[in-house]
Amino acid sequence: MTDGAPSVGFFSRLANPGHFLAWSRYAIAPLAVAAALLVAIGLWLALLGSPEDYQMGSTVRIMYVHVPNAWLAQLCYGVMALAALGTLVWRHPLADVTAKAAAPLGAAFTAIALMTGSLWGRPTWGTFWEWDGRMTSTLVLLFIYLGIIVLWRTFEDQARAGRVIAVFTLVGAVNIPIIKFSVDWWNTLHQPASVFRAGGPTMPASILAPLLTMTAAFTVLFAVLQIVSMRTEILRRRADSMQRRHASELSARPA
Amino acid sequence: MSPFASIVRRDLRLAARAGGSILTLVVFFALVATLVPFAVGPERELLRRLGPAIIWIAALLALLITSERLYRDDHEDGSLAAMRLARLPLEVTIAGKLLAHWLTTAVPLMVVTPPLAVLYDLDGATLLRTELTLLIGTPALISYVGIGAAITVALRRGGLIAPVLVLPLTVPTLIFGIAAIRPLLAGTAATALMFLIGFSLIAIVIAPFAAALALRMGAE
Amino acid sequence: MIDLGEHWAFVVSAYAVATVAVAALIGWVVADARRQRARLAELEAKGIRRRSGGPWA
Fold first, then answer.
1. Neighbours of A171 (CB within 10 A)
2. Residue B183 Ramachandran class (φ > 0 left, ψ -120 to 50 alpha, else beta)
3. Count of CB contacts below 8 A, A vs C?
4. Which three-class secondary structure state does DSSP give residue A57?
5. Which residue intervals of chain A are DSSP H helices?
6. Burial B60-79 (b: 16+ CB within 10 A, else e)
7. In chain C, whose CA is at the least distance from the CA of A112?
8. d(CA A142, CA B168)
9. How many domains does chain B fold into?
10. ipTM
11. Neighbours of chain A (3+ CB pairs under 8 A)
12. Full-model pTM
């Protein structure tokens, strides 16, 4: 599949930002509609169409909005990590854009996961923050996202930023499972009695339907936001290079 | 002398010439450890319990603020570019720099730990375990500092960014380092120590490659 | 009426927080998109040409 010069491969065509702008514009509306529909169905299932959990009572409904965001927190980092590989291994021009667009989205979903998790914890465990393994590693993940966002803003040369941030993203990708493991271990150290594990060992079907629907809804929401953000980033870079070109032309003109 | 050893020697000599920086580092470390009792109160039992943790955190913070020193001077006078292009692999060069950095930062901290242990009324066994965990854990901390410094080397407004990047990565080292000092449950100290050794080794191995990659990517 | 049980306040808060946050996120993404498109249009109106070729031109 990989070849030398003449024929432009599928991925190279996909890689061209102009091409991406062309096809992505038609994806936005359908995805947005799909997201809205899934959210509507999901909300109905979550709030009206499903019973209470026999252990947790009505607070299980919070899970339907917490779990999708926790899932997205991981997914967005996965997207950034794949994009990082794209930058470092294949020098894919869209990889930078993908990574930069995903970072604030991932941070937002992580923050929502933390806030909803905290509100879930209060009636369940009595405190707004329980230093349990999952919440704590999600908090550390948020810090990693914020660090990456700061890096994007601090580098002037965005191409250089993309490459360096790709290295850091991969370092983070290797370390995040280690962090999760160590935090879980730390947690069992301080709470040898088994902490109430929300969700239980078996998930009855009545919980699965709203859970999966809301998860799908949020995932599609992320997809459409990601595409829009990528388009914006491409436009931003075009405008930047035009401004730079204009500025250099102005300074080159004779007085 | 092998190229690796000469890198180590070079950085050691440069650090020695920098004079006051090791003293500053040690004073900062001691100050942080001294400040905490002002915040939590001088109750002996509490301080005895918190002692190793405070010493670890103070060491972590002290190591964070030294990250500038790793590559900044070499970056500014062009030696970093020379190292990148040299025949000696950049990874080996960085490994040498990290070793020298550890010798001039973590080791002084470990030397100053015993007097601080007195402030917290730690018994001999606890002090010994604290030193041991610092000995095993600080190489990991230096590794992460090395990666963070490589990523931010060219940033003029770098400032606090490197610590912000490094701190989340140090969570496992911190957790296992402290857990290895005092067993909360039977047998956990030994487990923690094993984990600490394992992750420290992983960090030491990964760091030169990651830092070299970051330096190369930042310089293209 | 939806029976949200005794902890209804927390359920409501959780959904409210999520809704506000998602709305803010969508708002920010859309506003940023509009801003960049306006900026590009303004530059093009000024007659600044784009160099053809290369991914960002």
1. 25
2. beta
3. 109
4. strand
5. 10-15, 17-43, 60-90, 93-125, 133-154, 158-190, 205-252
6. bebbbbbbbbbbbebbeeeb
7. C18
8. 10
9. 1
10. 0.92
11. B, C
12. 0.91
* Residues of the domain holding B70: 3-219
CB contact under 8 A, A231 and C33: yes
Q: What is the C-alpha separation between C2 and C37, in angstroms, rounded?
A: 43
Domains of chain A: 27-192+209-235 (1.20.120)
Please name the residues in contact with A72: beta carbons below 8 A apart, sequence gap of 6 or more: A105, A106, A109, A113, A218, A219, A222
Sort B142 into a burial class: Cβ within 10 Å, 0-12 / 13-18 / 19+. Answer: buried
C1-24 pLDDT per residue, tens: 466 677 888 889 999 999 999 999
Cβ <8 Å between C40 and A16: no
Rounded distance between C-alpha atoms, residue B79 and residue B14, angstroms: 13
Q: For residues C40 and C23, give the distance between their C-alpha atoms in angstroms, rounded to a whole number.
A: 26
Confidence of residue A199 (pLDDT cuts 50, 70, 90): very low
Quick check: C17 contacting A, CB < 8 Å?
yes
CA A158, chain centre distance (Å): 20
- Return the half-sphere exposure (C-beta side, CA atoms, 13 A cut-off) of residue A115: 18
Chain B residues touching A178 at Cβ < 8 A: 172, 199, 202
**What's the CA gap between A109 and A218, in Å, rounded?**
9
Q: Are B145 and B120 in contact (CB under 8 A)?
A: no
Q: Decide if C53 touches A, using CB distance below 8 A.
A: no
Q: What is the DSSP letter of A53?
A: B
Which single residue is written with the structure tokens 């096809």?
A: A23
How does the average pLDDT of chain C come out, rounded? 83
Please, where are the H alpha helices in C1-57?
8-45
Distance of CA A176 to CAs A135, B16, B156, B205, Å? 13, 37, 28, 17
Distance from A184 to chain B by nearest Cα, in Å? 10
The two tokens of residue B195 are 């984990």
Q: Which two tokens stand for residue B164?
A: 């912000």
Instruction: Measure in Å the smallest separation between the Cα of C35 and chain A Cα atoms.
Output: 9
User: What subunits touch chain B, counting only 3 or more CB pairs under 8 A?
Assistant: A
